[in-house]
Specification:
It is built from 7 helices and 10 strands. By secondary structure, the protein is of the alpha/beta class. One of its GO terms (cellular component) is membrane protein complex.
């Protein structure tokens, strides 16, 4: 089963003469352990697509299936619950609470979801270990570099043990050195943990680090190409060849 699938997804905003099609019949299938980058010029629809993939909004038509469940068919409460428990989010802004330590920032969402404090801390420490930040667990964000803060944010997303990790310009606030470190971490999560990742970026070097590159233009999939040297993972579907 695919981790994520979009079937003929269209998203419109406005009505009548001001109706805009942000996405037009987008169909994608993303299997377990795939690392997919989405790129495109401003206005191509990549941010809209990420919003739909994360269950924050619903398509005008078409289906978005997470582990076989059509998110648009769920009630708002059920979709929120699925988003909170099955999708990890990483943003350009780190969104860490400044007065909490790294381990507290990672464990807080778990506690808010009903996980006991002791279990939440255990999972937070495990997630920080996965991003090589165990030694900084007691530090508040102000004592961490930008790259370290982003790694804590990634740990927070991983702590829920998501089926899908969505990253929106995760290196946008980082210098080139920190960007390489974060991308190396994401690649390792895919190759060692078979974590499914979908990343939106405007940076070609970041996009090329993914195993599969989807380019959007004018709300449509312009190309969908897997790197020749990308690992073949169990359950992963081959990407389509680019359209000519």
């Amino acid at each position: 089963m695919q981790v994520l699938e979009t079937r003929d997804v269209t998203k419109c905003f406005g009505a009548g003469d001001v109706r805009v099609e942000a996405l037009r019949s987008v169909s994608l299938a993303i299997g377990p352990g795939e690392f997919v980058a989405i790129m495109g010029p401003s206005g191509s629809g990549k941010s809209t697509l990420l919003t739909l993939l994360g269950g924050v909004d619903t398509p005008t038509s078409g289906q978005i299936l997470l582990e076989g469940t059509d998110m648009a068919a769920l009630s708002d409460d059920a979709r929120t619950l699925m988003r909170r428990r099955r999708i990890g989010f990483v943003f350009q802004a780190f969104n860490l609470l400044p007065t909490l330590s790294a381990v507290e920032n990672v464990s807080l969402p778990l506690e808010l979801d009903g996980v006991s404090a002791s279990k939440a801390k255990e999972r937070a420490e495990k997630a920080l270990e996965q991003v090589e930040m165990s030694h900084r667990g007691d530090h508040i964000p102000g004592k961490l570099s930008g790259g370290e803060q982003q790694r804590v944010a990634i740990a927070r997303a991983l702590a829920i043990e998501p089926a899908l990790l969505l990253a929106d310009e995760p290196t946008g606030n980082l210098d080139s050195r920190q960007t390489k470190l974060v991308m190396s971490l994401l690649t390792r999560l895919v190759e060692e943990r078979q974590q499914t990742i979908v990343l939106v970026t405007h940076d070609p070097s970041v996009g090329e680090a993914a195993h599969r590159l989807v380019k959007l233009r004018d709300g449509r999939v312009e190309s969908d190409v897997r790197r020749a040297d990308a690992p073949t993972l169990p359950g992963a579907e081959p990407a389509a060849r680019p359209e000519h």
